[in-house]
Amino acid sequence: MKMKKLYSISISLIGVLINTCLFGQQVQVTSPYFQNPELLIDFADDCAKFWSGVHDPTYGGFYTFVNKEGNATNTSEKHLVSLSRDAYGMTRAFMLTGNEEYLQMASSSLDFIDNHLWDENYGGWHRSSNRSGSSPRTGDKTAFDQHYALLGNAAFYEATRSSNTWNVIEKGLDHMNEVYWDDRTEYLGYFHKTNTQSENPNGKSFNSTVDAITTHLYPLYLTTGDQQYLDRLNILKSNMIEYLVGSMDQSVIGFAEEFDSEWNIDHSQNRTIMGHVLKTAWCLGRIHRIDQDNNAINAAEVLIDDVLQNGYDHIYGGPFKDYDRTNGQMMMYGISDKAKAWWQMEQAITSGFILFDITKDEKYLQMTEESLDFFMDYFVDPTYGEIYADRAQNGSKIPQWGEDKGNDWKAAYHSIETAYYAYLYSQLLLKQEGASLYYNIEASNTERELLMNPLAIDFDKLKIQSVSLNGENFTDFNRDTRIVTLPANVEGKLKVTYIMEGLAPISVIDPLSSPTVTNNISIFPNPTKDVLFIESKTSNTSYRVLNILGNLEMSGTLNKLRDQINVSSLKSGIYFLQVDDTTIRFIKE
């Protein structure tokens, strides 16, 4: 398995030191995804193709339970959270690629949610139903489910500004405000759950608090600029700092995640999840980008530093999973090796990006780089596509847990969101080049000013570089305020290119300077343009080259211990070289 690579900072030369003093900090990074962020668009596209295979063309939406090969294993159930996560992922895939088929599938998933899972009697969304949606499952309702019902809708609204989608969002928000919001001055926050009748709201939790930010409140503020969302974000910021971070002095690692209705810690629940700690830091950093509250960023640093010190793999990279916060012991769940989860890797990537952007502390970028490389090297399935849910510390399979790709928790969300944010941050913050996104805006009978804020970043430096509408140059936009003005009755496909201005330079090192090595083979250069040199321990052995979807591109025999193959005919992208029982990733430029 690949060991963690060295991470270097270019402050050794006098000239660089002077440049640092005058113009800000310079760092060097070596990840191929930092050097070629477009690879992340390819990855998102491949993930979307995987999920396209389990879209239900008859009743709409997506099947929930999907095996390693991409086949639906249970076609009789559909689940709210996975449907919304699929809609989110397909929407982001459209925004990255411009493929409108992905947007259409996202729309069908949201239609299924609204048409079949909304509780017409008591309000709120049911958690699941049969395939057709004719028999929704009744039972207790949670803030987690209600928040995530809005995840796909908020992303779809950003991409389309659809009035129908906005109506669904308002319906969901009204229900959350009426039923789940605790407006008692001393206990402000979202309740954790209600009964079937949307009565007896009780409890507070990480999920009821932080997931409100990521699923809808933050994206809705970026899309609308409406003060009501910022006001709610500021209350939740206080909740995170006072109750989540505030419980850390009673924890060996992490924080308390469940509370009663008055924010007293539920001591019967001791699990702390590293992904939740990192996600809280990410949310605090995102809110800081709006209001510049130093308390938020100070708390975010405390959170990430706790993970780096107590719950992070400094050998292979990436955060570990879950711990007992009272004694610091890792929860093993019946396995013998330490484990990492797909979605927790994303939280390390996104929180590391935003903390580096704000603080310029290289350790956060190092965490991002290590986690992203581990994610792409070991979570991505080179044979069937998409990502596994869990990997062992060194990236190997955890046999007891299987390798299914979809369930009522795992869908298209985290894989494609990782690609989305990693692409934007790498392109804008590190490479400091234009990053383009697509939107498919519906017509309106009045002129509209569209606020374009694709991510949390230094908004003073984020500009619109160019806009096209239906393939033609479009000039009615304000580059500094990032407002695109569309006349009445105009619709179509926008391509908006963003750029950062006034940033300190970042040096991205070409990884061609060192070979990629596993236990059995090494390859050089990586990335490559034409010839890939291979050194193996045995001669006269067969090899195969697979694309990211697992399709065979090349095969042959390595006749010598040191041999080479010509890959110039391959399209640019990520590929996997298989030699005997060893698989190694390489990039074709």
Structure description:
- Helices cover 39% and strands 21% of the residues.
- The protein is α+β, with helices and mostly antiparallel strands.
- It has three domains: 32-430, Alpha/alpha barrel (Glycosyltransferase); 435-500; 521-588, Sandwich (Immunoglobulin-like).
- It has a four-stranded antiparallel beta sheet. The protein has a four-stranded antiparallel beta sheet with strand order 24-25-26-29, with no helix packed on it. Strands 28-27-30-31 form a four-stranded antiparallel beta sheet, with helices on one face.
- Residues 1-24 form the signal peptide.
- Residues 523-585 form the Secretion system C-terminal sorting domain.
- One of its GO terms (biological process) is carbohydrate metabolic process.
What's the story with the biggest beta sheet?
A: 4 strands, antiparallel
Summarize the amount of helix as a percent range: 25-40%
| Weakly predicted, low-confidence segments | 1-24
CATH fold label of the largest domain? Glycosyltransferase
CATH architecture of the largest domain: Alpha/alpha barrel
Distance between the termini: 24 Å
* CATH class identity of the largest domain: Mainly Alpha
- Count of discrete domains: 3
The strand count comes to 31
Q: Give the CA-based shape.
A: globular
Number of helices: 14
List the strand order in the largest sheet.
16-22-18-19
Q: How much of the polypeptide forms β-strand, as a percent range?
A: 15-25%
Mean pLDDT: 92
* Cα gyration radius (Å): 24 Å
Helix/strand-derived category reads alpha+beta
Pfam family, one: Por_Secre_tail
Protein name: Putative secreted protein (Por secretion system target)
Keywords: Isomerase, Signal
Family: Belongs to the N-acylglucosamine 2-epimerase family.
